[in-house]
Design brief:
2 strands; 4 helices
Length: about 160
């Protein structure tokens, strides 16, 4: 049982690391430009604070995952890792939510405030953002699975 738990935890941590790395790379490389009425505008992730927050949160989660991968053999840190996994899962879910809200406005616009959708003019940017959001959402789900796995397999869970 212990070996199976360790293999599952390592597998989920590798998946989480891969998903967060993918989310960061795809979001950072998202840029496109369009010309409207002889004016060129460029869409890139650094134009919006929510996208910057998304990249920073995903990078923090990636760094944390890499650190835990190299120290996961120490059982004495199990409860600390469980608490930090919960913190990282909350960080990831908030960053995905913030970026998703901005992406929705970019795709659909907002007729009440007069904001027009931009994805028709910069489809490459919107496709990259969508890919980054999918990877970020996958990372958040993987962290949720890590938390459930840790709670299920621990002998003395924190609050149960």
């Amino acid at each position: 049982m212990t070996k199976t738990k360790t293999v599952l935890t390592l597998f989920l941590r590798f998946l989480a690391t891969g998903a967060t790395i993918a989310a960061v790379i795809v979001m950072v490389t998202s840029h496109d430009s369009a010309e409207v009425l002889n004016l060129t505008f460029t869409a890139k992730y650094s134009n919006d604070q929510a996208f910057k927050y998304f990249v920073i949160a995903e990078a923090i989660a990636c760094g944390y995952s890499l650190i835990v991968l190299f120290t996961c053999s120490q059982n004495s840190l199990g409860r600390l890792f469980l608490i930090l996994d919960v913190v990282i899962a909350m960080l990831l879910s908030s960053s995905v939510s913030a970026a998703l809200a901005i992406a929705h406005v970019g795709k659909k616009g907002n007729s009440h405030t007069g904001w027009l959708p931009i994805c028709g003019q910069v489809p490459k940017f919107c496709d990259h953002v969508t890919g980054a959001l999918v990877a970020g959402f996958a990372a958040a789900i993987i962290y949720l699975l890590l938390i459930v796995s840790s709670l299920y397999s621990s002998q003395n869970p924190l609050f149960l």
